[in-house]
């Protein structure tokens, strides 16, 4: 039996809440992409309504963390785990906000036919979703190899983002009437690219947790 | 390709992680110190350098040798029958374990504060001037100056200045401990050894003594044995972790409590054994 059983329980509770927030965010992003692709405005509205759950979970994670620091005076790996959890919760909650942002763009686009197939956007989305899954697994398993993979995948998202934005810019010049939708789709690209950056931040927190030093994986 | 670049802050942290010592600022240098109580070996191959104007904390579970070690630094350990030592402890370049080293000379340089406050059954004033008196100072004016300076140094002057002639036993536990620190300062030592100085004190008195240590380290070198790991983290510059008579890890306190090198240190400070 561990000496600090209650403390271990609370640390597990913290970890589980974070994974719950991760699952919620993953689901929200999957639905956001579905709403965008199928131009389902009702689904987009639902996603916006559901977002309070992410806020509540993030608050709960912060409350557990603050209370653990006050009560247990954690040091070394325990302190790093709690600090990492607080930072990761902020990143994941922000990613959940991007699902809402995509839903808002979906509503603005409405039922106008898409100006071009969403292949690049779908690809960015799928890489970013994998980054989110891997980064949270890395946290759960203290696995910096997985964290490193996340950082590498961010480069793919950045490349796709660059390509897609360039194609949208040229489309704007030749077809100014498409500007409103192209702007919204550009926003979506930006949301996905930023979400991937937040996944890289999560990977950095995992590096901090395991190595006890700060790393900049975004450079 | 993403780069795993460390930030400059962590690089700086690593570069300054050494002991930062040179021969001049080393107060104590312990080399291959071994100590036995009869057949029981209590200290094994201890190598430690204590740097001046720093607070060095010694932590570890009961029976790990931390109090034994601190008592070798002023040779109080000799009072215990059957003690045998091997190795060397240099204080300012001279081996104090050498028979020719006068223990009285050592103790004028090295003061000690104990777990339970132990004032003499005398007045507050007499407690403080006791040391200087036995060192031959008779001039009342000088003794008064020493008393005030020492009591101010121990952050207790304002509380006792109007009752210097009252018995020290009338003070609270926290005040008595600060009086003992004042008594220690009166002989103008170089080093102050503290063996769990706050474990018998209430939280506010503990904080007062901790604050005081931060002031004192500007003029003195302090070595403290403590069971309270948060206290070690709060007050010390370096921390040594003792286990079964050995030094498992000796490093900067910031490193010790954020990312210790040894798994046994990590397990102890996070409360997973001990």
TrEMBL record, chain A:
InterPro entries: PhoU, PhoU-like_sf, PhoU_dom. GO terms for biological process: intracellular phosphate ion homeostasis; negative regulation of phosphate metabolic process; phosphate ion transport. Residues 18-105, 121-206 form the PhoU domain. It comes from the Bacteria. Keywords: Cytoplasm, Phosphate transport, Transport. It is found in: Cytoplasm. GO terms for cellular component: cytoplasm. The keyword Phosphoprotein does not apply. Pfam families: PhoU. The keyword Transport applies. Gene3D superfamilies: Phosphate transport system protein phou homolog 2, domain 2. Belongs to the PhoU family. Plays a role in the regulation of phosphate uptake. Homodimer. This is Phosphate-specific transport system accessory protein PhoU. It comes from Peribacillus glennii. The lineage of its organism: Bacteria, Bacillati, Bacillota, Bacilli, Bacillales. The gene is phoU.
């Amino acid at each position: 039996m561990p000496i600090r059983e209650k403390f271990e329980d609370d640390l597990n509770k913290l970890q589980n809440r974070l994974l719950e927030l991760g699952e919620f965010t993953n689901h929200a992003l999957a639905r956001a992409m579905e709403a965008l692709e199928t131009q389902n405005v009702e689904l987009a509205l639902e996603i916006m309504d559901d977002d309070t759950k992410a806020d509540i979970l993030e608050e709960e994670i912060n409350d557990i963390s603050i209370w653990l620091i006050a009560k247990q005076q954690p040091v070394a790996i325990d302190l790093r785990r709690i600090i990492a959890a607080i930072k990761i919760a902020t990143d994941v909650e922000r990613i959940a906000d991007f699902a809402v942002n995509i839903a808002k763009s979906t509503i603005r686009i409405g039922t106008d036919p898409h100006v071009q197939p969403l292949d690049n956007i779908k690809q960015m989305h799928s890489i970013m979703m994998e980054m989110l899954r891997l980064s949270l697994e890395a946290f759960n398993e203290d696995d910096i190899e997985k964290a490193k993979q996340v950082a590498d995948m961010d480069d793919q998202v950045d490349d796709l983002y660059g390509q897609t934005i360039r194609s949208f810019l040229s489309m704007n010049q030749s077809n100014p009437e498409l500007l409103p939708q192209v702007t919204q789709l550009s926003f979506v690209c930006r949301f996905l690219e930023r979400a991937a950056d937040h996944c890289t931040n999560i990977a950095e927190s995992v590096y901090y947790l395991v190595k006890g030093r700060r790393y900049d994986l975004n450079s | 390709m993403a780069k795993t670049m460390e930030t400059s802050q962590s690089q700086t942290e690593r570069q300054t992680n050494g002991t930062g010592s040179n021969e001049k600022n080393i107060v104590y240098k312990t080399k291959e110190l071994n100590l036995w109580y009869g057949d029981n070996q209590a200290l094994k191959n201890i190598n430690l350098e204590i740097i001046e104007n720093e607070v060095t904390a010694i932590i570890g579970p009961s029976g790990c040798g931390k109090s034994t070690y601190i008592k070798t630094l002023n040779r109080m350990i000799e009072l215990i029958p059957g003690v045998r030592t091997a190795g060397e402890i240099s204080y300012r370049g001279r081996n104090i374990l050498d028979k020719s080293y006068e223990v009285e000379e050592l103790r004028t340089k090295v003061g000690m504060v104990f777990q339970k406050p132990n004032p003499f059954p005398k007045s507050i004033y007499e407690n403080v001037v006791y040391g200087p008196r036995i060192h031959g100072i008779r001039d009342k004016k000088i003794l008064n100056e020493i008393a005030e300076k020492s009591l101010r140094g121990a952050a207790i002057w304002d509380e006792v200045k109007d009752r210097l002639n009252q018995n020290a036993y009338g003070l609270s536990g926290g005040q008595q401990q600060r009086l003992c620190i004042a008594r220690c300062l009166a002989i103008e030592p170089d080093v102050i050894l503290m063996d769990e100085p706050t474990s018998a004190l209430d939280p506010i008195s503990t904080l007062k003594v901790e604050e005081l240590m931060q002031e004192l380290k500007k003029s003195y070198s302090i070595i403290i044995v403590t069971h309270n790991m948060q206290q070690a983290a709060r007050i010390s510059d370096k921390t040594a972790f003792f286990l079964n008579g050995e030094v498992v890890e000796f490093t900067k306190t910031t490193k010790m409590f954020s990312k210790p090198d040894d798994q046994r240190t990590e397990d102890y400070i996070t409360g997973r054994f001990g």
